[in-house]
Amino acid sequence: MMRARHIPLCVLVALVAAVSVSCGPNTNYIRRMQALEEGVDNPTTVKELEEAIAKYQKRVEDVLNADIRTGMWYRLLAIRYLDNGMYAKALENFRMAVQYYPANQNLYYYVGVCAGYLAKASLDFGATGSAAERARYLDLAESAYLRAIELEPRYVRALYGVSVLYVFEMEKPEQAIRHLTTALEVEKKNVDAMFVLARAYFMAGKAEEAVSLYDTIVTLTKDGNKLQSARENRAFVLEHAYGE
């Protein structure tokens, strides 16, 4: 490991200060730290700065480890709330976890899930102002899913989640088609994604594609309920599109 005496003096000062990108020491910060630690008196030489860094390194690591644990606790608490159907509490804690892990696509996915549930709850209650609240949650769910996809473009759960919003809540079938096509490139036999995609095709006036996809589902699924749904949906599309 390279010893601190080989590092330029201005860099060492910056490390101790930890508050500036310049090479000059932040004397106010050092004085405050001196009040907390003994044995570091006006560090200016390389040796004194080495001692200061050694003393404060553990303090920095403790703060970092505390932040890591806090972010994990928010996530675990949020999942527990989600498992119990407490979506508002889960959303609150997932959003706190995002502040600690802003590049974690899974957290954004869960924000989307919770916001989607709350959007539906707002509609079901039928209270004054619920339409605006529903729109706000739908926007949050959409943006959270899209952020997850931005971080991981082939993240199937987020691709599926936002597509469900587009098809069943927001009437944006063309956008759902784009995301579900990507999802099925990753998971070619994802029957649930096929069902949503077939509905999106029908909504977009692409009956032939919808019928073809229902035929594919019939050949793939071993689930009796899904098999029946695929056949019924296929018949519905044929009847409404072609009068058969």
Brief sketch in words of this structure:
The protein has helices at 9-17, 27-36, 46-83, 87-100, 105-125, 130-151, 156-169, 173-186, 191-203, 207-220, 224-242. It is mostly helical and 244 residues long. The protein has a domain at 160-244: Tetratricopeptide repeat domain (Serine Threonine Protein Phosphatase 5, Tetratricopeptide repeat), CATH 1.25.40.
Order of helices and strands: HHHHHHHHHHH
The span between the termini is 77 Å
Helical amount among residues, as a percent range?
over 70%
Q: What's the shape?
A: elongated
Q: What is the CATH topology classification name of the domain at 160-244?
A: Serine Threonine Protein Phosphatase 5, Tetratricopeptide repeat
- Named at the architecture level, the CATH assignment of the domain at 160-244 is Alpha Horseshoe
Quickly give the structural class.
Answer: mainly alpha
- What's the level 1 CATH class of the domain at 160-244? Mainly Alpha
- Largest sheet: number of strands, sense, barrel closure: none
Beta-strand residue percentage: under 5%
Q: What is the radius of gyration computed over CA atoms, rounded to a whole number of angstroms?
A: 27 Å
Low-confidence stretches: 1-26
